[in-house]
Amino acid sequence: MELEGRGAGSVAGGPASGPGRSPGESTLLDGWLQRGVGRGAGGGEAGACRPPVRQDPDSGPDYEALPAGATVTTHMVAGAVAGILEHCVMYPVDCVKTRMQSLQPDPAARYRNVLEALWRIIRTEGLWRPMRGLNVTATGAGPAHALYFACYEKLKKTLSDVIHPGGNSHIANGAAGCVATLLHDAAMNPVEVVKQRMQMYNSPYHRVTDCVRAVWQNEGAGAFYRSYTTQLTMNVPFQAIHFMTYEFLQEHFNPQRRYNPSSHVLSGACAGAVAAAATTPLDVCKTLLNTQESLALNSNITGHITGMASAFRTVYQVGGVTAYFRGVQARVIYQIPSTAIAWSVYEFFKYLITKQQEEWRAGK
C-alpha cells in the first residue's frame, strides 16, 4: 500500500493531491491524515498511517473496558443493586423452596407444586406470609453481592491474562466464581439461617430480632455458620458451573461483549437452571442444617445435626435417595428468573455507570 512507504516529511507537508491520484483518493488521504495528526504523537507517521476506525454510533462505550480507578466501585454498586432486586423479586418462590425441601413436613405443609404452595400459604397464613424475613435478606444481599461481583470481575481478568492472554478462559471464569463465593457466603450465611427459620411452616419467629436472639441464646454464635462448609460445598460447584456456562453462552450470543439485554437474560437463565439442578442434593442438606428441622432430628442420634456428613446421613435415613432432590422443581424455577434478573440488572448498571463515566471524561 502506498501510504505505508511514505516518510514523516511527506506527512508533515500534507499535500492535498499529487501525480497519479484521483480526486477521490486525495479526499480519502486528507481524511486519514487529519485523523492521524490528531491522534499521533506530534502528527508523526504512526498516527498518520493509521486508517480511521469505524465505530457504530449506537454501540455506546465498551463497558467491559472500565475507566482506570473506577472498576471496583462500579462492579460493587452494580452487584449490590442486582443482588437486592434478585432476592426481593424471587423471595416468595424461595419461601416455597425452603418448605418443599422439608424432610418430614406437617400434613398442612405438603405441596404438589410451586403455584399450589403459594396459593395455600397466602390463603391459610396471610398475604404477606411468603415475604417474612425479606428485610434481613435484602440487608445481607447488598454487601454480599457487591463483594461477589467485584471479586469475580477482578479475578476473572487477572487469571484470564495469565492463562489465556488477550482472550477468555473458562478455567479463569470458574476459578474466579469459586473465590468470589467464599466472600459472598461469609456475608450471607447468617442471613440464610435467620431467613429459612422464619420461612418454615409454623415458625415461632415473627421478627428478625426474635429469631436472632433465640438462635444466639439456645445454640450459640456458631449456629449462624453451622451450614457454612455445606454452603461452600454447594455454592463452589454451583458458581463454577454458573459462571462457566454464562461466559460460554455469552461467547455465542454476544461475541462482541456489548450491552445486550436479551443475551444477558438468556445466558443467565440457562446458567442458573443448569447449576441449580446439579447442586440440589447439597441445597437440601444446607436447608436441614439451617433449620434443624425438629421431626428430622428424631432420626438423628446426636442432639443437633452438625456438618455435611451428618446432614447427608440424616437425609438418607429419613427419605432415601429421592429425598436429596426434594424441592428441585422449586429450586430450578427460582433460579431461572433469579439469575436472569441478577445478570441483566448487573450488566445494565455496569453499562449505565460506565457510560456516565465516559461522558464525564469526554466533557472535561
Main attributes?
364 residues, mainly alpha, Mitochondrial carrier fold, 15 helices, 0% strand, iron, mitochondrion, membrane
Explain what this protein looks like in three dimensions.
- The protein has helices at residues 8-13, 23-39, 45-48, 71-89, 91-100, 114-125, 134-163, 170-199, 208-219, 228-253, 261-278, 280-291, 294-297, 308-319, 328-363.
- The chain is an all-alpha fold.
- It has a single domain (68-355), classed as Mitochondrial carrier fold.
- Helix 4 (71-89) packs antiparallel against helix 15 (328-363) and helix 10 (228-253) runs antiparallel to helix 12.
- It is found in: Mitochondrion inner membrane.
- Residues 1-60 are annotated as: Disordered.
- One of its GO terms (molecular function) is ferrous iron transmembrane transporter activity.
- Residues 1-17, 37-46 have a biased composition (Gly residues).
